[in-house]
Amino acid sequence: MASGVRSSVVSLWLRALFSDKANLFREIFYIFLLLGVCPVSVVHADITDGNSEHLKREHSLIKPYQGVGSSSAQWDFGGSTLVTSQYVRLTADERSKQGSIWNTVPCFLKDWEMHVQFKVHGSGKKNLHGDGIAIWYTKDRLQPGPVFGNRDHFVGLGIFVDTFRNDIHGMDRSFPYISAMINNGSLAYDHGKDGRMSELGGCSAEIRNRDHETYLAIRYSKGRLTVMVDIEDKNEWKECLDISGVRLPIGYYFGSSAATGDLADNHDIISMKLYQLMVDHPPEEDSVDWTKIEPSVSLLKSPKDNIDDPTGNFRSTPLTGWKVFLLLLCALLGIVVCAVVGAVVFQKRQERNKRFY
């Protein structure tokens, strides 16, 4: 199918070089639409549908949360966290609160996907609420601190749902804002800049005070980190960020934390479900000790360069064969347009010269 379409494009271009029919260019445009060169607002979500056979219950938090916090439980909590039969409230709508809940079982899966069902709500009006909620995959757990209720200089992955703008100069993005950060313990999270200096990418999402729960999907597979959101309760994932070149070890802990400051909100976790992804790895990776890998990400720029790139989307994505084809196609189209214009100009000159004979 694709090869036939490509040959049709080439054929049309060749005809355009030797024909003055304007509708040929219209045909070329239709072919480009078919190939997907023209942008469309369609999101392709490579997210598991949550088949129960992949669910890892030892890493999942599900209602009614029986035994949470006991000595034999697989989840433990601290700070202001309140566990009910319907939700886990990390913070109430009160000022200066911190709470967290953590899996007590380290995760030894190389490829995984975490689905988080949560709700952020409160009495605060627009821009008068805070601070936010975080999802963690880190080396240490239950260590309270200034980063949405967890320690700074953490080691691992943090996904932040920041509901309050601290940087008054960062008006290029709206809040709440979801972002990702990889840390080997050497970086500090800068609240004054809303974490912009260390973020890998992110998106704005109106997750607060919805009439329904909101969902976050975090997928890590073969060095690729993808975050998707569903804030409309339509069972449709929308891509928030997609980053290649990520390295995360095994043996870390999943958790969630939240914090309030001078402003407040209820930060509720309804469920956290971890799914194992069945992925084949190359044989050379069998000798790798995945417990000793340092959290890192390969970027064309340092995260600190994000100050000059307010979109936060400075990650490097690999050029697939399809992308290369589209780039070549666009380049070839430019050459053809130049050739057609040149041919028309040359023909005009030839006709003008004939008048002198």
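That was protein one. Protein two is written in the same sequence-then-structure order:
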Amino acid sequence: MPKISLNTLWDVAAAEVRNRDDEEDDEEDAHLPTERTVFFMGSKAGGKTTILLRILDRDEAPKPTLALEYTYGRRARGHNTPKDVAHLWELGGGISLSDLVQIPITADNISTLSVVLVLDLSKPNSLWETMERLLGSARSHVGKVFSSIQKTGESRSGKQQSQNRVPGVLHKDYPDRELISPFTVPLLIIGSKFDIFQDFDSEKRKVICKTLRFVAHFYGASLIFTNSKSESTMSKARSLVNQLAFGTERPKSVSTDPSKPLVIPAGLDSLSQIGPPVTSDVDIGALHAKNPLDLWKKVFERVFPSENTKERTELKDPAKDPQYSEPLIDAIRAQKDQELEQYKRQQAKSWKSLTLDP
């Protein structure tokens, strides 16, 4: 019989005590309130605030979001239990203020962060660009935060962070796992204004539906279409957001009919069910796509060419955005701007008239 040293026995005993302590800590953590962060972004005037208010059960008239706004929601798990907290951020201005994603995405909340992308279905010509720019900005900054965490090994809160969120989002049996590129944090895509979208030509609806289904599946995201006038669609959207915000059970209903609002929780779609892009008058091989996502983009933009972005780039300053206009204040501001320009011209003339001693 092999001889067991006293040191080995103490090591085994110490490891057993640590394991018991860890289990007790896990049990305690299960009863503690949680805090999660949900970041809403998407199409300008696309209905983000309306959706957010309905999710929070607030009977308020939505107002235009100025730059970046914060609110929160609370939910009790049961009677006489501490309430879980959801920190809710909303980015206004569409793609014009995408640089602000760095504010709600931090090392402190990255392990509990989720993103909700709201796309205006009534404006398909700006849909792809909005999606591409905003998801690109968010993904880039999430990557920077993860890189900084990997260098230190932990977040500023002192808790060990996962180096890769993919295992937490996609299980091993996830459909087409090897063929997709999941978003680094949980993602929900909401197509708003279905009441307008449903009047589109059936072929155009089919292109939009199949494209968004592919994009959602490619990013490992859930997808739902909503109509702010329909309690049914808003209730389903609320359930999906509550899953991200409070960890509630994921809805199981699925709808893939293009004539009805889509409802597809992450992991319940597949490339075989989605099928190829709708290409009635184009040879896919002639599009020279770099990857599957690029192929779907090229096909989509042949049907819905991207709008001119010149106007959007000019509206980086929210003060120049017409949706935030205040006639009285704007008139005073214009007057002051004129006075400033006049003062600058006078000062320039006075400097030119000065004669300096040789």
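DSSP finds eleven helices and seven strands in the chain. Keep this in mind for the problem set.
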